[in-house]
Design brief:
Blueprint lengths: L2 E5 L3 H11 L5 E5 L2 H10 L4 E4 L8 H11 L5 E5 L4 H10 L3 E4 L4 H18 L3 E4 L2 E4 L4 E4 L2 E3 L3 H12 L7 H9 L9 H12 L2 H4 L1 E6 L3 E6 L2
Parallel strand pairs: 1-2, 1-3, 3-4, 4-5
Antiparallel strand pairs: 6-7, 7-8, 8-9, 10-11
Helix pairs in contact: 1-5, 2-3, 6-8
């Protein structure tokens, strides 16, 4: 049973989230602000955190930053009334995995929660299969059917990062920090160059997945039906 922590100072919103998720078999816990959330997480681990932005004592921005520092593999879904693109960019750069705007439809909340939990189960795997393409992180091997491919290390790491989190948007800054490291001093456009090379190596009509550009935000990998 997946454990989910709901962090919002609005009692009505917490009740709505609980009502939406109650019948899905999740264990639900509540906190009214970031400080309460951190205190709860010291007592019990959870599998996912749903958090608001505008909260007293510790807001969602600071909480997101602290959660990513203390629990780097903990999935987070930010639920907020803020709709500006720059707020979404800020959330992704601080470490949130997905973004849902209030007022939300309960079925969409459930769908996003399930997708995030599934995404993190995939991310913990050492082998990822995308159609006919298989990525093996332990050996850095790429295969397509019977064909073996050799990728430069950074291209492999970039593709594996995107494939491990399908449909999750990564900003350029996130990819630079996670693939090249926080001390990287080069141009962040190096991400664009590597994405272009990956698209050339893996044309979407053939391989069954595509690396999409999300204007103003970054990139995501999408598995094609």
């Amino acid at each position: 049973m997946a454990k989910i922590l709901l962090v919002d100072d609005d009692n009505y919103i917490r009740e709505l989230m609980k009502a939406s998720l109650h019948g899905e078999g999740f264990a639900l816990f509540e906190a009214r602000n970031g400080r309460e959330a951190l205190e709860q997480l010291e007592r019990r681990p959870v599998d996912l955190v749903i958090l608001d932005v505008m909260m007293p004592l510790m807001d969602g921005w600071e909480l997101c930053r602290e959660l990513r520092r203390l629990y780097p593999d903990l999935p987070m879904l930010m639920v907020t009334a803020r709709t500006e693109t720059m707020d979404k960019v800020k959330g992704f750069e601080l470490g949130t995995d997905d973004y849902l705007v209030k007022p939300f439809d309960p079925p969409e909340l459930v769908a996003r929660v399930k997708a995030l939990l599934k995404r993190y189960r995939i991310a913990s795997s050492q082998v990822i299969r995308l159609g006919e393409v298989e990525l093996n992180r332990s050996s850095f091997e790429v295969s397509r059917g019977r064909e073996r491919m050799s990728l430069p290390p950074k291209e492999f790491e970039l593709l594996f990062k995107l494939a491990a989190h399908p449909n999750q948007i990564f900003t350029r800054n996130q990819l630079i920090e996670q693939i090249w490291g926080i001390d990287y001093e080069g141009d962040d456009r190096t991400v664009d160059v590597h994405i272009k090379r990956l698209r050339e190596r893996f044309p979407e009509p053939i391989v069954g997945f595509a690396i999409r550009t999300i204007r103003g935000l970054g990139y995501k990998l999408e598995v094609l039906a």
